[in-house]
Amino acid sequence: MRFPVRLQFDLFRYIAKQRLAGKKQYPLVLMLEPLHACNLACAGCGRIVEYEETYYDKMSLEECFESIDECGAPIVSVCGGEPLIYKQYPELLQGCFDRGKHIQLCTNAILLDRFMEKVPPHPNLTIQVHLDGMRETHDRSVCEEGVFDKVIPQMKRAVEKGYRVSTNTTIFRDTSDEELEALFTMLDGMGVHGFLITPGYAYQVLENDIYMAKEEVHRRFGRIKQIAQRHKVLSTPLYLKFLTGERDLLCSPWANVTRNPRGWKGPCYLITDGHYKTYRELVENTDWEFFHQRRDKRCENCKLHSGFEASAAEEITRSFSDALEFGRWVVR
C-alpha cells in the first residue's frame, strides 16, 4: 500500500461527511507552521525572506490546538521553519494524536536523532524529510555542506526503529533525471516508505533562476513520470499527468490551508495577500473561485501539489477509469 489503510479510511470518511453536509470547499490538510525560524537557509525557501520581521515569533501550544480544532482537517502537516526546533513539539504531536489527526512532520532531519528520543513511532505519524538530491545537489540546495551525510544515517535509524519515513523532493531546473533515479534507488534500499515529488515553485518574494516555467515542467516530467513508475513515488497518477501536460486541473487552494504566527495565511501556501485571525475570516474573505480558476497572474506557472493533488482526488470521483488507475496504483 502506498498509504496507511487507517489514513485512507479516515480521509474517505471525512470527505463523505463533508459531501453529505453539502460542502464543496473544505480543508483536507492544515499546514501548521508553529514558527518560521530554521537551522538552515535554503535557496528555494521564501519563508525566511517573507517573514523576516517576525522570524523568531512562535505560536503558543494553545494557539496550535485552537487552529487544529477550528479548521477540522484530518491531516496536519507540521512544518515551518524547522518544526523540530519548536520546543513543545512532543506535546503538539501528542495533542494531534489524541484528536485522531494524521501527522506529516516536515523536517530537514538534522535533529531527527533528538526527536526519536522524545517521540516514539505512532501509526498516525509520517516523518517527511526534505531531500532535494544526492550529496552535492542537496547540500547546494540547503546552502550548507555536510547536511546530506548528517541526515541519511538518521533516516536509516528512524526506519529501523519503526517510524514511517518518506521524502519530499523539489525538482529545480538543474535537477538531473539520472540523479533522481539514483536518489530513489538509494532510498528504496533504505526502506523509505515513499517519495513525494513536485516542481520547484517560485515564491512571490523570491527572484532567482532555479525554477521551471510551465512548458519546462511538462517536458521534464514527461521523463520523470517514467522514473516514478519504477519507484514508490507518492504523487498520484493524475497529478503526474497534470505535470506532464496530459491533463489539466483547476486549483483547490482551500484544501491545504496555512496557519502561522501571523495568523491564517491567504489565499494559499505560496501567495500572501493577507493574514486573518480566524479560519472563518480566511474563508469569508477569500475569493476561492478566482484562485480556483487560476486567474491570478501569480498562478501562471504554479503546479504545486498542495493546490492540485486535491483537485486530482476530486476528478477521480468523477471518472471510473481514473478511479481504477488510482486503485491499482495505491496497491501496487
Taken as a percent bin, the fraction of beta residues is 5-15%
| Global morphology | globular
Question: Helical stretch count?
Answer: 14
Kindly provide the radius of gyration, computed on alpha-carbon positions and rounded to a whole number of angstroms.
19 Å
**Overall strand count:** 9
The CATH superfamily label reads Aldolase class I
What is the CATH class name? Alpha Beta
Strand order of the largest sheet: 6-5-4-3-2-1-7-8-9
| Name given to the CATH architecture | Alpha-Beta Barrel
The termini sit apart by: 7 Å
Decide which structural class fits the backbone: alpha/beta
Q: Summarize the amount of helix as a percent range.
A: 40-55%
Give the low-pLDDT segments.
none
SSE string, helices as H and strands as E: HEHHEHEHEHHEHEHHEEEHHHH
Task: Return the CATH topology.
Answer: TIM Barrel
Describe, in short, the structure shown:
The protein has 332 residues and is of the alpha/beta class.
Would you give an account of this structure?
The protein is α/β, with parallel strands linked by helices and 332 residues long. The protein has a single domain, classed as Aldolase class I (TIM Barrel). Helix content is 43%, strand content 15%. It has 14 helices and nine strands. Strands 6-5-4-3-2-1-7-8-9 form a nine-stranded mixed β-sheet. Helix 3 packs parallel to helix 4 and helix 9 packs across helix 10. The protein is globular. The relative contact order is 0.13.
